[in-house]
Amino acid sequence: MNKNSNVFKVDRNTNRINPLKKRRFSDLGFKERDHIQEWLVHQSNALGEDLLIIQKEFDGFDDTRERLDLLALDKAGNLVIIENKLDDSGRDVVWQSLKYTAYVSRLTKAQIVDIYQQYLVTYEGGGSSTDKICEFLEVDDIDEAVLNSGNSQRIMLVAGHFRKEVTATVLWLISRGVRIQCFRITPFSLENDVLLDIDLIIPPPEATDYMIGISSKENEEATVQGVQKERHQIRFNFWSHLLTIFRNKNIELYSNVSPTKDHWINAGSGLSGCPYSLVFGKSESRVELSFSRGDTLWNKSIFDKFYEHKDEIEHAIGKKLEWKRLDDKKSSRIVLAHSFDGFDKNNWSTIVEWMAENILLFQKVLSPYLDKYGQAMKNSHSEDSLNMEEDQME
Protein backbone atom coordinates (compact mmCIF):
# COMPACT_ATOMS: atom_id res chain seq x y z
CA MET A 1 0.00 0.00 0.00
CA ASN A 2 1.50 3.36 -0.97
CA LYS A 3 1.22 6.33 1.32
CA ASN A 4 -1.57 7.95 -0.75
CA SER A 5 -3.80 4.89 -0.85
CA ASN A 6 -6.93 4.45 1.24
CA VAL A 7 -8.67 1.51 2.86
CA PHE A 8 -12.41 1.21 2.27
CA LYS A 9 -15.29 -0.65 3.83
CA VAL A 10 -17.78 -2.13 1.35
CA ASP A 11 -21.42 -1.44 2.17
CA ARG A 12 -23.37 -4.27 0.56
CA ASN A 13 -26.73 -2.63 1.23
CA THR A 14 -25.94 0.59 -0.64
CA ASN A 15 -23.35 -0.91 -2.99
CA ARG A 16 -20.93 1.83 -1.99
CA ILE A 17 -17.50 2.00 -0.42
CA ASN A 18 -16.66 4.18 2.56
CA PRO A 19 -13.10 5.14 3.50
CA LEU A 20 -11.78 4.05 6.86
CA LYS A 21 -10.15 6.72 8.97
CA LYS A 22 -6.38 6.53 9.11
CA ARG A 23 -5.14 7.01 12.69
CA ARG A 24 -1.92 7.56 14.61
CA PHE A 25 -0.79 5.06 17.20
CA SER A 26 -0.05 7.77 19.73
CA ASP A 27 -3.57 9.19 19.36
CA LEU A 28 -4.99 5.73 20.05
CA GLY A 29 -2.85 5.26 23.15
CA PHE A 30 -0.67 2.53 21.69
CA LYS A 31 2.99 2.25 22.66
CA GLU A 32 6.01 0.61 21.06
CA ARG A 33 6.92 -1.80 23.83
CA ASP A 34 3.51 -2.52 25.32
CA HIS A 35 1.64 -2.95 22.05
CA ILE A 36 3.51 -3.15 18.74
CA GLN A 37 6.24 -5.31 20.24
CA GLU A 38 3.76 -7.67 21.88
CA TRP A 39 1.69 -7.93 18.68
CA LEU A 40 4.75 -9.14 16.80
CA VAL A 41 5.80 -11.50 19.60
CA HIS A 42 2.44 -13.26 19.55
CA GLN A 43 1.93 -13.10 15.76
CA SER A 44 5.48 -13.53 14.55
CA ASN A 45 4.44 -14.28 10.96
CA ALA A 46 2.83 -10.83 10.66
CA LEU A 47 5.97 -9.66 8.83
CA GLY A 48 5.39 -12.09 5.98
CA GLU A 49 7.30 -15.19 7.07
CA ASP A 50 7.65 -17.61 9.95
CA LEU A 51 9.97 -16.26 12.62
CA LEU A 52 10.93 -17.69 15.99
CA ILE A 53 11.16 -14.90 18.56
CA ILE A 54 14.05 -15.81 20.86
CA GLN A 55 14.31 -12.67 23.01
CA LYS A 56 12.76 -9.26 23.55
CA GLU A 57 14.42 -6.17 24.99
CA PHE A 58 17.71 -7.97 24.46
CA ASP A 59 20.52 -6.23 26.34
CA GLY A 60 23.27 -8.82 26.22
CA PHE A 61 25.87 -6.46 24.76
CA ASP A 62 29.23 -5.86 26.39
CA ASP A 63 29.89 -2.38 27.79
CA THR A 64 26.58 -0.89 26.68
CA ARG A 65 23.11 -0.54 28.15
CA GLU A 66 21.38 -0.54 24.77
CA ARG A 67 18.40 -2.83 24.17
CA LEU A 68 17.26 -4.28 20.90
CA ASP A 69 13.47 -4.65 20.62
CA LEU A 70 13.15 -8.20 19.27
CA LEU A 71 15.65 -10.88 18.32
CA ALA A 72 14.42 -13.74 16.15
CA LEU A 73 15.51 -16.66 13.98
CA ASP A 74 14.28 -17.22 10.45
CA LYS A 75 13.80 -20.62 8.82
CA ALA A 76 17.38 -20.65 7.57
CA GLY A 77 18.80 -20.14 11.07
CA ASN A 78 19.70 -16.49 10.46
CA LEU A 79 19.38 -13.97 13.28
CA VAL A 80 16.76 -11.29 12.61
CA ILE A 81 16.97 -7.93 14.38
CA ILE A 82 13.52 -6.29 14.63
CA GLU A 83 13.34 -2.62 15.60
CA ASN A 84 9.94 -1.05 16.23
CA LYS A 85 9.06 2.61 16.12
CA LEU A 86 5.65 4.18 16.62
CA ASP A 87 4.35 6.86 14.25
CA ASP A 88 7.76 7.98 13.00
CA SER A 89 10.96 6.06 12.31
CA GLY A 90 13.20 8.84 13.59
CA ARG A 91 16.46 9.58 11.82
CA ASP A 92 18.77 7.19 13.71
CA VAL A 93 16.90 3.89 13.41
CA VAL A 94 19.21 2.52 10.70
CA TRP A 95 22.36 3.32 12.64
CA GLN A 96 20.79 1.82 15.76
CA SER A 97 19.85 -1.41 14.01
CA LEU A 98 23.27 -1.72 12.38
CA LYS A 99 24.93 -1.45 15.79
CA TYR A 100 22.70 -4.21 17.15
CA THR A 101 23.43 -6.36 14.11
CA ALA A 102 27.15 -5.95 14.65
CA TYR A 103 26.73 -6.92 18.29
CA VAL A 104 24.74 -10.10 17.64
CA SER A 105 26.86 -11.17 14.64
CA ARG A 106 29.33 -12.63 17.14
CA LEU A 107 26.81 -14.83 18.95
CA THR A 108 27.61 -18.54 18.88
CA LYS A 109 25.10 -21.35 18.62
CA ALA A 110 25.46 -22.11 22.33
CA GLN A 111 24.84 -18.46 23.22
CA ILE A 112 21.75 -18.30 20.99
CA VAL A 113 20.35 -21.45 22.57
CA ASP A 114 20.98 -19.97 26.03
CA ILE A 115 19.39 -16.62 25.10
CA TYR A 116 16.26 -18.40 23.90
CA GLN A 117 16.20 -20.58 27.03
CA GLN A 118 16.21 -17.44 29.17
CA TYR A 119 13.33 -16.10 27.10
CA LEU A 120 11.31 -19.30 27.55
CA VAL A 121 11.85 -19.30 31.30
CA THR A 122 11.03 -15.59 31.66
CA TYR A 123 8.08 -15.26 29.29
CA GLU A 124 6.77 -18.71 28.36
CA GLY A 125 6.92 -20.64 31.61
CA GLY A 126 9.76 -22.89 30.51
CA GLY A 127 10.37 -25.46 27.83
CA SER A 128 13.45 -26.66 25.99
CA SER A 129 15.03 -24.09 23.69
CA THR A 130 16.96 -26.85 21.94
CA ASP A 131 13.82 -28.82 21.14
CA LYS A 132 11.92 -25.76 19.95
CA ILE A 133 14.75 -24.56 17.70
CA CYS A 134 15.07 -28.03 16.18
CA GLU A 135 11.35 -28.19 15.57
CA PHE A 136 11.29 -24.71 14.04
CA LEU A 137 14.24 -25.42 11.72
CA GLU A 138 12.97 -28.96 11.02
CA VAL A 139 16.24 -30.64 11.97
CA ASP A 140 16.71 -33.78 14.00
CA ASP A 141 19.01 -32.38 16.68
CA ILE A 142 20.81 -29.17 17.56
CA ASP A 143 24.17 -30.40 16.25
CA GLU A 144 22.75 -30.18 12.77
CA ALA A 145 21.33 -26.66 13.11
CA VAL A 146 23.32 -23.86 11.49
CA LEU A 147 22.71 -20.65 13.46
CA ASN A 148 23.99 -17.15 12.73
CA SER A 149 26.33 -18.24 9.97
CA GLY A 150 28.81 -15.67 8.64
CA ASN A 151 27.22 -12.38 7.61
CA SER A 152 23.73 -13.81 7.38
CA GLN A 153 22.10 -11.44 9.89
CA ARG A 154 18.94 -9.62 8.80
CA ILE A 155 17.23 -6.38 9.88
CA MET A 156 13.51 -5.58 9.95
CA LEU A 157 12.45 -2.01 10.67
CA VAL A 158 8.82 -1.42 11.64
CA ALA A 159 7.27 2.07 11.88
CA GLY A 160 4.20 4.09 11.04
CA HIS A 161 6.23 6.42 8.81
CA PHE A 162 9.77 6.32 7.41
CA ARG A 163 11.76 9.49 6.87
CA LYS A 164 13.44 10.02 3.52
CA GLU A 165 16.92 9.88 5.04
CA VAL A 166 16.03 6.46 6.44
CA THR A 167 14.64 5.02 3.21
CA ALA A 168 17.53 6.40 1.18
CA THR A 169 20.06 4.81 3.55
CA VAL A 170 18.19 1.48 3.54
CA LEU A 171 18.14 1.36 -0.25
CA TRP A 172 21.88 2.07 -0.34
CA LEU A 173 22.56 -0.68 2.20
CA ILE A 174 20.49 -3.17 0.19
CA SER A 175 22.55 -2.33 -2.90
CA ARG A 176 25.64 -3.22 -0.84
CA GLY A 177 24.25 -6.61 0.15
CA VAL A 178 22.85 -5.79 3.61
CA ARG A 179 19.60 -7.68 4.20
CA ILE A 180 17.25 -5.04 5.56
CA GLN A 181 13.50 -4.46 5.18
CA CYS A 182 11.11 -1.65 6.08
CA PHE A 183 7.54 -2.40 7.11
CA ARG A 184 5.04 0.46 7.40
CA ILE A 185 2.26 -0.20 9.90
CA THR A 186 -0.90 1.89 9.73
CA PRO A 187 -3.91 1.75 12.09
CA PHE A 188 -7.42 2.41 10.77
CA SER A 189 -10.66 2.94 12.66
CA LEU A 190 -13.67 0.74 11.93
CA GLU A 191 -16.48 1.70 14.29
CA ASN A 192 -15.19 0.51 17.68
CA ASP A 193 -12.42 -1.64 16.19
CA VAL A 194 -8.91 -0.81 15.07
CA LEU A 195 -7.56 -2.45 11.93
CA LEU A 196 -3.85 -2.76 11.29
CA ASP A 197 -2.25 -2.67 7.85
CA ILE A 198 1.31 -4.03 7.64
CA ASP A 199 2.97 -3.19 4.34
CA LEU A 200 6.47 -4.14 3.16
CA ILE A 201 7.63 -0.96 1.44
CA ILE A 202 11.38 -1.64 1.05
CA PRO A 203 12.42 -3.66 -0.81
CA PRO A 204 9.41 -4.26 -3.07
CA PRO A 205 8.11 -7.86 -3.08
CA GLU A 206 9.86 -8.86 -6.32
CA ALA A 207 13.20 -7.76 -4.88
CA THR A 208 12.40 -9.63 -1.66
CA ASP A 209 11.87 -12.84 -3.61
CA TYR A 210 15.28 -12.35 -5.20
CA MET A 211 16.91 -11.80 -1.81
CA ILE A 212 15.24 -14.90 -0.39
CA GLY A 213 16.45 -16.88 -3.39
CA ILE A 214 20.03 -15.74 -2.81
CA SER A 215 19.71 -16.63 0.88
CA SER A 216 18.38 -20.10 0.05
CA LYS A 217 21.31 -20.71 -2.28
CA GLU A 218 23.79 -19.61 0.37
CA ASN A 219 22.11 -21.82 2.95
CA GLU A 220 22.14 -24.80 0.60
CA GLU A 221 25.83 -24.31 -0.04
CA ALA A 222 26.48 -24.11 3.69
CA THR A 223 24.73 -27.41 4.37
CA VAL A 224 27.21 -29.36 2.27
CA GLN A 225 29.92 -28.55 4.79
CA GLY A 226 30.95 -30.18 8.03
CA VAL A 227 28.56 -32.19 10.12
CA GLN A 228 25.53 -31.59 7.91
CA LYS A 229 27.24 -33.00 4.84
CA GLU A 230 28.18 -36.09 6.80
CA ARG A 231 24.70 -36.52 8.28
CA HIS A 232 22.99 -36.06 4.93
CA GLN A 233 25.16 -38.79 3.46
CA ILE A 234 24.49 -41.11 6.42
CA ARG A 235 20.74 -40.63 6.05
CA PHE A 236 20.80 -41.16 2.31
CA ASN A 237 22.76 -44.38 2.77
CA PHE A 238 20.44 -45.57 5.53
CA TRP A 239 17.27 -44.96 3.52
CA SER A 240 18.84 -46.69 0.51
CA HIS A 241 19.59 -49.68 2.73
CA LEU A 242 16.08 -49.67 4.23
CA LEU A 243 14.25 -49.35 0.91
CA THR A 244 16.28 -52.19 -0.58
CA ILE A 245 15.35 -54.46 2.32
CA PHE A 246 11.71 -53.35 2.13
CA ARG A 247 11.61 -54.29 -1.55
CA ASN A 248 13.13 -57.68 -0.77
CA LYS A 249 10.48 -58.19 1.90
CA ASN A 250 7.72 -57.10 -0.51
CA ILE A 251 6.74 -54.23 1.77
CA GLU A 252 4.82 -52.07 -0.67
CA LEU A 253 4.06 -49.14 1.64
CA TYR A 254 7.23 -47.29 0.60
CA SER A 255 7.61 -48.73 -2.90
CA ASN A 256 7.29 -45.30 -4.55
CA VAL A 257 9.68 -43.54 -2.15
CA SER A 258 13.27 -42.61 -3.05
CA PRO A 259 16.23 -42.24 -0.67
CA THR A 260 16.62 -38.76 0.78
CA LYS A 261 19.00 -36.78 2.98
CA ASP A 262 16.11 -35.91 5.33
CA HIS A 263 15.69 -37.67 8.65
CA TRP A 264 12.21 -38.89 7.67
CA ILE A 265 10.36 -40.52 4.81
CA ASN A 266 6.58 -40.59 4.35
CA ALA A 267 4.14 -43.00 2.76
CA GLY A 268 0.49 -42.37 2.03
CA SER A 269 -2.13 -43.88 4.29
CA GLY A 270 -4.94 -43.47 1.79
CA LEU A 271 -6.10 -40.30 3.52
CA SER A 272 -4.66 -36.98 2.40
CA GLY A 273 -2.48 -35.25 4.97
CA CYS A 274 -2.14 -38.33 7.19
CA PRO A 275 1.11 -40.09 6.21
CA TYR A 276 2.81 -43.04 7.81
CA SER A 277 6.29 -41.75 8.66
CA LEU A 278 9.61 -43.40 9.41
CA VAL A 279 12.06 -41.21 11.33
CA PHE A 280 15.77 -41.98 11.56
CA GLY A 281 17.86 -40.08 14.09
CA LYS A 282 21.23 -40.23 15.74
CA SER A 283 19.85 -41.48 19.05
CA GLU A 284 16.41 -42.89 18.24
CA SER A 285 14.15 -44.10 15.46
CA ARG A 286 10.38 -43.71 15.21
CA VAL A 287 7.30 -44.83 13.36
CA GLU A 288 4.46 -42.32 13.27
CA LEU A 289 1.01 -41.61 11.98
CA SER A 290 0.67 -37.86 11.42
CA PHE A 291 -2.42 -35.71 11.11
CA SER A 292 -0.96 -32.74 9.27
CA ARG A 293 -3.54 -31.11 7.05
CA GLY A 294 -3.73 -27.35 6.74
CA ASP A 295 -6.85 -27.35 8.94
CA THR A 296 -5.80 -27.36 12.61
CA LEU A 297 -9.31 -28.17 13.86
CA TRP A 298 -9.50 -31.14 11.52
CA ASN A 299 -6.17 -32.50 12.77
CA LYS A 300 -7.09 -32.12 16.44
CA SER A 301 -10.56 -33.59 15.94
CA ILE A 302 -9.40 -36.77 14.25
CA PHE A 303 -6.56 -37.16 16.76
CA ASP A 304 -9.09 -36.93 19.59
CA LYS A 305 -11.22 -39.67 17.99
CA PHE A 306 -8.17 -41.95 17.82
CA TYR A 307 -7.29 -41.08 21.42
CA GLU A 308 -10.71 -42.27 22.57
CA HIS A 309 -9.53 -45.74 21.51
CA LYS A 310 -6.06 -45.41 23.04
CA ASP A 311 -6.26 -48.50 25.21
CA GLU A 312 -7.54 -50.82 22.50
CA ILE A 313 -5.03 -49.47 19.97
CA GLU A 314 -2.09 -49.96 22.34
CA HIS A 315 -3.38 -53.42 23.24
CA ALA A 316 -3.55 -54.38 19.56
CA ILE A 317 -0.05 -53.03 18.89
CA GLY A 318 1.29 -54.48 22.11
CA LYS A 319 3.23 -51.36 23.08
CA LYS A 320 2.71 -48.01 24.78
CA LEU A 321 2.56 -45.17 22.28
CA GLU A 322 3.28 -41.44 22.51
CA TRP A 323 0.08 -39.47 21.86
CA LYS A 324 1.24 -36.04 20.73
CA ARG A 325 -1.73 -33.74 20.30
CA LEU A 326 0.63 -30.72 20.12
CA ASP A 327 -1.93 -28.09 21.08
CA ASP A 328 0.42 -25.26 20.11
CA LYS A 329 1.01 -26.70 16.64
CA LYS A 330 -1.12 -27.28 13.58
CA SER A 331 -0.43 -31.03 13.33
CA SER A 332 -0.77 -33.98 15.73
CA ARG A 333 0.76 -37.44 15.64
CA ILE A 334 0.82 -40.92 17.16
CA VAL A 335 4.38 -42.13 17.78
CA LEU A 336 6.28 -45.28 18.64
CA ALA A 337 9.96 -44.60 19.38
CA HIS A 338 12.97 -46.77 20.20
CA SER A 339 16.50 -45.77 21.23
CA PHE A 340 19.21 -46.74 18.76
CA ASP A 341 22.66 -45.48 17.91
CA GLY A 342 21.55 -44.70 14.41
CA PHE A 343 24.89 -43.49 13.10
CA ASP A 344 26.54 -46.83 13.88
CA LYS A 345 26.07 -48.81 10.65
CA ASN A 346 26.30 -52.05 12.62
CA ASN A 347 22.82 -51.24 14.01
CA TRP A 348 21.16 -50.55 10.68
CA SER A 349 19.82 -54.03 10.06
CA THR A 350 18.28 -54.07 13.54
CA ILE A 351 16.75 -50.64 13.02
CA VAL A 352 15.31 -51.62 9.64
CA GLU A 353 13.79 -54.79 11.09
CA TRP A 354 12.25 -52.77 13.92
CA MET A 355 10.85 -50.19 11.50
CA ALA A 356 9.47 -52.86 9.15
CA GLU A 357 7.73 -54.75 11.95
CA ASN A 358 6.19 -51.68 13.56
CA ILE A 359 5.16 -49.68 10.51
CA LEU A 360 3.30 -52.73 9.23
CA LEU A 361 1.75 -53.10 12.68
CA PHE A 362 0.77 -49.42 12.61
CA GLN A 363 -0.79 -49.86 9.20
CA LYS A 364 -2.70 -52.98 10.24
CA VAL A 365 -4.05 -51.56 13.51
CA LEU A 366 -4.60 -47.91 12.59
CA SER A 367 -5.94 -48.22 9.04
CA PRO A 368 -9.43 -49.28 10.16
CA TYR A 369 -9.67 -46.17 12.32
CA LEU A 370 -8.48 -44.04 9.40
CA ASP A 371 -11.19 -45.57 7.26
CA LYS A 372 -13.81 -45.02 9.93
CA TYR A 373 -12.98 -41.48 11.01
CA GLY A 374 -10.99 -40.21 8.08
CA GLN A 375 -13.65 -40.86 5.52
CA ALA A 376 -16.26 -39.36 7.83
CA MET A 377 -14.18 -36.20 8.09
CA LYS A 378 -13.08 -36.05 4.48
CA ASN A 379 -15.28 -33.12 3.68
CA SER A 380 -15.88 -32.01 7.25
CA HIS A 381 -14.27 -29.18 9.19
CA SER A 382 -15.91 -29.71 12.56
CA GLU A 383 -15.87 -32.28 15.28
CA ASP A 384 -19.67 -32.14 15.55
CA SER A 385 -20.13 -33.58 12.08
CA LEU A 386 -17.60 -36.29 12.90
CA ASN A 387 -19.50 -37.22 16.04
CA MET A 388 -22.75 -37.31 14.07
CA GLU A 389 -21.18 -39.62 11.49
CA GLU A 390 -19.81 -41.86 14.23
CA ASP A 391 -23.26 -42.14 15.86
CA GLN A 392 -24.71 -43.26 12.54
CA MET A 393 -22.00 -45.89 12.17
CA GLU A 394 -22.66 -47.28 15.61
From TrEMBL:
<dbReference type="InterPro" id="IPR011856">
    <property type="entry name" value="tRNA_endonuc-like_dom_sf"/>
</dbReference>
<dbReference type="Pfam" id="PF14088">
    <property type="entry name" value="DUF4268"/>
</dbReference>
<feature type="domain" description="DUF4268">
    <location>
        <begin position="234"/>
        <end position="369"/>
    </location>
</feature>
<protein>
    <recommendedName>
        <fullName>DUF4268 domain-containing protein</fullName>
    </recommendedName>
</protein>
<dbReference type="InterPro" id="IPR025364">
    <property type="entry name" value="DUF4268"/>
</dbReference>
<dbReference type="GO" id="GO:0003676">
    <property type="term" value="F:nucleic acid binding"/>
</dbReference>
